Amino acid sequence: MNQNLQNILELQTALTQLNEADQRLHGIPDWMRELHEEHTVQTKEIERLEETAAEAARQRRAAEAAVQDAQEKLKKYQQQINKVSTQREYGAILQEIDTVKGQITTSEEAAFSALDQHEKADKELAALRESFRATEERYAEEMARWEGEKPGVARQVEALKGRVADLKKGLSRGLVAQFERILDRYPGGATAPVRPIERPGLKQREWHCSACNYRVRPQVVVEIRNGDTLVQCDSCKRILFFPEEEQA
Length: 248
Description:
The protein is of the alpha+beta class.
């Protein structure tokens, strides 16, 4: 196999391993993903209920303040009613009194409703926190275990970064740039194995790019086998190679 192609394949493998290790380091390991999702869902539900309770408390305070303001207005109108001198003034004050009494009733109802919502949310919150306690304890244990494993993963990441740098040094700048351009287009991999496709009735096997399934021309197959130059797929432009089991 062409040495440049060998280095590029090793570089692709090292980069894939580096990405996987980096995701493990900065993410949640598979063995605690289900617990993490359960913990996240319950945490969000607790936050939602806390916000519901807080909002109900705010509404209750606002309604109680509105009741107090309306009661102060009512007192003033009741004091003024004995001072009016005309029937028209008397009727106007009575109308204002009725309006304020309606405001008091509405605000009191809002306060009672908010109180009910607050108590309901607090009750649900207490029950959820109680059930969440076991989940939180398990989550803390698993996170402690994961924190203990992280240094090893971090060392693996650094080792792979060094491996990637060394492999790039073994390639020309032009080849590294070519590889990286393809990788930018296809983050999943800049290389693709050539695979045979058996078709009934054909004497010779057809070869296809395993990434895009585009047919690889016979003369291109020969170029890849000879290994003199890097060969790209005519369609997707990934760098083609033969897996070891297909070399024969």
